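Human: My hope is that you can spare some time for a protein that puzzles me. I am handing you a single protein, as its sequence and its fold in token form. Could you go through the record with me and say what the backbone is doing? Take your time, and here it is.
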Amino acid sequence: MSDSDAPRFVDRRAASRLSPEAAGGDAPEEETAAPAEAPAGDLGEQLEAAQAAAERFEASWKRTAADLANYKRRVEQERAEQARLASAALVINLLPIRDDFGRAVETLDSTLAGLNWVQGVIAIERKLAGLLESMGVAEVPAEGETFDPNQHEAVGRAPGPENVCVHVVQKGYSLNGSVIRPAMVIVGEGGAATTSESEDEGG
């Protein structure tokens, strides 16, 4: 008996471990799954959701930017107000000194005008007045002016033109246009003409 006629025994387990080519079979082609296409409706919804989220983010950013701008403006206003109040407090404390120097200069005897200490007092009074003026301080017009409760404080009445400031008891001052101390004044009560007529009749 020849080798070709001998029965052939096949080890199935060994054959299974062989490559497909060695086993005599063609390797099955792997099928690549095509990606599933999302429905058009789902894409539209996703786009709308993304646009809505972007609009929310933009609105939130705008609110935050506006809040920051308002905060900066408020801080600047508070700083300016604090500086104004500090300046006003300093001026208010300096005004009595200004008054004292003013009265001292006004009441100086003319015979003392040539003395050195008198000249020193006058120089100090001028420097203080110049300092206050440079800070925005101005004297409130009073004598001969119509009485204004926003600028004047009436401390008495006397014969004279009605509702007119006939005498200044204490000067008033404003700081950058705002009155920080009203002028104390004597207001006319309109009796001057009557008094004159009585004197004429008596003469």
